[in-house]
Structure formats: structure tokens, C-alpha cells
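Quick log. Single chain, no ligands specified.
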Amino acid sequence: MGAGRQTGVVAPSPQNSLTRISNDGRCLAMTPKGIRLLDLIKREKLDEVLQAFTQVSGIASIITDTDGHPITKSHNFTSFCQRYCRSTEMGREKCYASDSYGGAKSLELRQPYLYECLNAGLVDCALPIIVEGYHLANFLCGQVVEKPISVEAATRRARAIGIDDVEGYLDALNQVPRMKRERLVSIVTFMSVITQTISELALQKFMLDKQSRRYLNKLVNSVSDCIISLNADSHIVLANEACPRVFGYEVEEMRGKSFLELLSDPSPFEHYQCEIATRDGNRGRLELTGLRKDRQTFPAQVSLARIGSDTEENVSYVAVFRDISEEKKIERMKEDLVGMLTHDMANPVLSIQKAIQILLNEDLGFVNDEQREVMELALSTSRQLHGMVAEFLDIYRSENGRFLLRKHAFDLNEVICESMGHLRFLAEEKSIGVRFDGPVEPLKVVGDRERVKRICVNLLANSINYSLRGGHIFVSAKRVGGGSGELAATFGQNVSQRLPAVGTYVLTSVRDEGFGIPDKYQEAVFEKFFTTKSEDQDVRRGLGLGLAFCKLVAEAHGGAICARTPRPVASSQKTPGCEIHLILPAGQSCDARDPS
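-> predicted structure:
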């Protein structure tokens, strides 16, 4: 260890920069805005170490960055340094430069460095804190003298930093503790152990963070979707390796670029980002059109999450950007295939119906009773098949905005009776009795007769399928007013409030004696492809489109449909039955073709 008067000041490195040191002590590179010591060890922990050090050594200590600016509190500083040396701006700058110089010199020598401070000439000692080859900070101690400092030299130094109270400066200097070289050497040895411990603690945290970042980078870059970090101005901060494959830009090209430049029309994203900033949840998803480097567009889905911050300037976003070109292509192919199949299936089914009808009309010869019964069963089954195809096609049309109603006035009593006739053989097969309790006078309804008939067929077929052998089905229909409490009791307030109170409606109910529908499924049964399980092995299971079609047509007419399971009369009753209620508007005749 050498102690000597310093003859030149080493220029401090730029603030918040790190110096990478090779094994032989050479400076390899300057890394601006790198890691800091406080990123690895909490300030409170460093202060605990320094406090223990000063209690043992009895001298001042502090940890500074490589520029000499304090990182920790000042521990056991002398009144001379606190009240005078660091009391003026020039004095503080000299102290910072002295601490920076001591750390740089110690780094160069690769050992503790004893030297006279550049401000007042007191004896200080410096040691660098190095983590993974980076010089992060300096550990400094001292503020002692080995021998008295002359009055002339002290006065000159006081005036050089702008001290007016020179006499007080000299008095405080005389109170600075004296220490022999041997004592200093022993303290410096202790200081080396502490510095090594701090460096090792910081290194452990550094390696752990480095490993975590490496794993996170590997994880993010393994994802096939683009993951992009945005600042408050929607400029790209980070992008994963999937982005070049999607957008055609290199990762470095994307950094700093506005995310809006990657969108064909940025206005939906801006509006969406504004919504996220003002609503709860701070996340959401939308579809928009992406724009590649070659100016080609493609459909995309963006999931955006806002990373919370107390200040709007520091807010940031994470966007997961997904090219959905293939999904859209497959979706269009599926829609085209469904449309084509349902449309092309309808024609052969109708041909079968016409052929059977010709036989039943005896246009080709006499038909006996047994033959007629078989042909009527075949005709009824073909009508069911045609109805299923029509429902599938109507649901497809509705989802694509091409569903039309052909409305006119008709008698609902007549439609219900026709529907019961179509399902006569199905009911007889399970020995189920179907009873219709309707008014004597016609129940006029304005709507699409064929589709309303399909509703009635579906509701009856559903009750037959889910009823026990030998059971009964009860059908009723009546006229009700829009403001009646019966609608609210049947459909609930939410539905009844959507129906105009001044209107007149026809309420149709189909009740069976089957196992019923659990409460949690009473709304789900009207969704596509939903079917419930039954304890009866004799139940026919469908595709789950019948009730979905019923809801579609009912709501297209301005009506509603719901399912209810009455409570069992006795706990031993395993079949509480099911009630399905349909409400359709009644009114004057109309021949318009109204889109739903």
C-alpha cells in the first residue's frame, strides 16, 4: 500500500456509467446506464455494514458510485468534513473528485489505496466494489491525519473552496483524529474483507438476475406470437424474435419505431389504448389489420396489457401481436363448406319428400294401410331431416348477417296441430301422449310461418326425446298483453322489459314429465351444440342445434324463449319435468321481407 501526495486528478467517468475490467486490470469497455450497486443490494443493508465498520474502526466510512457521489449515508464523518469541507459547492466537488480518484487508483493497483484527499489533505483509503468484472462503486474510509497539517497549507485550502470562517476551519481541523500508519493498515485489512463480502453478495444477486433474465428472454423468444413492449407514446422498447417473421423488420429496426406504423389503420388501436388507460382491468384484446415492411396487410389479433405506474409519463404496455391469417382462412373455408353442404343437402331431401308424397297420393298405384303407415313414417322422418338442414342453414345465415324473415299473419293453433301430426309416429313409438289445450278462436301471429313451425316441431321433438316412455306432454297457447305480470313471472324482468308494454303477444308453453333441466343449464341449452345428459338410456340425443334455432327465430321476431324446471312435488319425485315457454308478437298481416 502506498501513501503519497496526489499530483494530478483523474477525470471522473460519466455519471451512471460502468467500467468493465479485465483480469489484468485493463479497462475493456464503458457501458452507459448499466446496473447499479443498489440494484443488487439494498441501501439499508449497506448502511448496516458501514455502521458496524465504523463502530469497530472508529473512523469515517461511505460508499459512493464511481464518480464519487454518495450511495449510502455518511457514517462517523468528522465535523471538519461535514461543516467545512463539504459545506460549499466547490468543496463538495473536490470531495467527490477525491473519492472518485481513490477508487480509480485502487482499481488500477488492484489493492487498497491510501492517499491524501484532494480537498483538505486528510488521509483516506479507497477500495473498488467489482461485480462480474464491472466497477460499480467505491468503499471509502478515513478522515484522519498521520501528522499535523501546516496552518499555511490549511488556510490556502480553505480559501480555495470558498470558506469564509477560516478560523473555525482551522479549529475543526485540529480536532480531526490522528492515527498511526500501523493502525491504518490493520483497519484497511478489515476494510478489504468487508469490500470482498459486499462484492460477493452483489455478485450472487447479479448472477441470479442474469440467469432469470436469460431464462425470461429464452421463454419470450420461444413464443411464436410477437411480444412487444411499448412506452407511453406507443414506441417500441423491446421486441422478441418472432417479430421479424411477422413484420419483416429486424429486431433492431423495430426498436424506437412507433407501433402505430405497424398497423394499416392505427385509429382502433389508439381508441382501444385510451379505453384501457381509463377503465379497470388494464388489459384487453381486439382484432385489427397489421402492416408488413413490404406494405402488405394481414389480419391480426392484439392483446394489450397496461403496466401500472403512478405517473402517466412512466406508464408502459405489453402487446402480444398474433397473425391470424390462417385462422381467418380456415374460418372462411368452414363457413363456405357449411353453407354449401346445408344448401346442397336440402335439395335431395326435398326430392325424397316429393317422391314419397307421390306414392301416398297413389299416383303410381294403390297403397294399402301398412304401406301407407310406413311411407308416412318415412315422410315424417324426411321432414325432420329437412328441418335440421334448414336450421343449420339459418344459423349459418344469421352468423353471416344474411338471415331473412318472410312475415305474414297465420293461425298458431293450426301450426301447432300440424307439428303434432309430423311427430305422431315418434310419440307413438315411446307411447307418449301429446295434448294441446288452446283457444277455440284462431291465434293470429305475424311472422315467418315455416320457421315458427320449425320451433314448434323442435320443442315437441325435444320433449318427446327427453320424456320417459309412457309419459305425457302438455301444450298450451294463449294471448297475453305486453304489460302483464305473467310475462315478467315467466321470462324474468330483463326479458319482459325489452318487450313493448303496449303490444299483444301469444304465449306458447310445452311441458313434459321428463328429468328436467338443471338450473345452471337453463340458459346454456339455447347455445349451439349444447346437449344435456339424461339418466334414461332411451333418450335420443341430437346435435344441440334445435333450441339454438328456436332462440334465433324467436328473438328475430321480437319475442323470447326460456326453459324452466318446476320444483318436485315430493322429494321422491325424480322427474320434475321441463317447461319451455315461447312468446311471439301478435299483430296485423304483413308481407315484408325483414332482415333479422
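Residues 1-17, 25-33, 537-542, 589-596 have pLDDT under 50 and may be disordered.
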